[in-house]
Write a structure and sequence with these properties.
alpha/beta, Rossmann fold, globular
Length: about 270
């Protein structure tokens, strides 16, 4: 069987997948009926979800731009890549520093198929892809492709964009992120966006809870408070402006042109590893 055939056999079109659902919210075509149904169900209780998806992408791009242009980072480990769109991590980083090296990690075969086809590199830099799961940090950190592509004697930016909230308590989220951070060289960085209920009006939260109890809304993510998100960064140096709503992290548009905080209910943060 061909490699592509193996990937096709792994695609479950009957169960929604976060990457494909995210693609649907962004207006993409790489999704199935189950992904669209799940996306629409979430939109019934959180109508601004498409705005949140766009703002999350914008946060990723600002964070990578800052890390490449101001922090001087030339290596990125992007876990939870998602289906490629415009201005992905390697495109932003290499537009600033063409020699940047990027490793993407995801566990959806559709993502990997597109990554191999679309995520190219500059001649000076490198881009690689790993089929692995965030829940197994050792399989990522010790992967031969990662070790061949990135130099662990130099700083690396670990990007965890809208992925950690898919880890439930039984997945040991703090231990998982901690293991990844512990594997990074000193002087590395961690960028994260994470869903939260802190910014959503109470009535909207209560409606979502009612839909969950009625079985009309399937929960596959954990909304965490600012305090809970801060636990991921214990011992790290938070960079200004700290843990803030994603639209407020080093914004490039005037405040009057940004969406209401409730319409992009995620926290964004970048921290330095001592």
């Amino acid at each position: 069987m061909t490699e592509g055939g193996e990937w096709s056999d792994r695609i479950d079109t009957t169960t929604p997948h976060p990457a494909r659902r995210y693609n649907y919210w962004l207006g993409g075509k790489d999704n199935f009926a189950a992904d669209r149904a799940s996306g629409d169900a979430i939109a019934t209780v959180y109508p601004a979800i498409r705005t949140a998806a766009r703002e999350n992408r914008a946060f990723l791009q600002r964070a990578v731009r800052f890390l490449a242009a101001e922090a001087g980072v030339r290596q990125f480990l992007d876990i939870g890549t998602g289906i490629p769109t415009a201005d992905n991590t390697h495109e932003v980083a290499q537009s600033i520093a063409p020699a940047s090296r990027i490793v993407y990690v995801d566990n959806d075969p559709i993502v990997l198929t597109h990554a191999r086809a679309l995520l190219t590199s500059t001649p000076e830099g490198a881009t690689a892809y790993i089929d692995a799961d965030l829940r197994s940090p050792a399989s990522i950190l010790h992967h031969e492709t990662l070790r061949r592509t990135l130099d662990f004697d130099r700083p690396i930016a670990l990007m965890l964009i809208a992925i950690v909230h898919f880890l439930f308590d039984e997945d040991k989220p703090y231990e998982t992120v901690g293991a990844l951070v512990a594997g990074l060289p000193s002087g590395s960085y961690v960028g994260m966006s994470h869903g939260t209920g802190d910014l959503v009006p109470r009535a909207q939260r209560e409606r979502a809870e009612a839909e969950i109890r009625a079985g009309r809304l399937r929960v596959d993510a954990v909304a965490r408070s600012k305090e809970d998100v801060a636990r991921f960064f214990t011992g790290l140096e938070l960079l200004e402006p700290g843990i803030v709503p994603i639209s407020q992290w080093r914004p490039t548009v005037p405040e009057e042109d940004r969406p209401p905080l409730a319409d992009a209910s995620l926290y964004g943060v970048v921290a330095r590893v001592p």
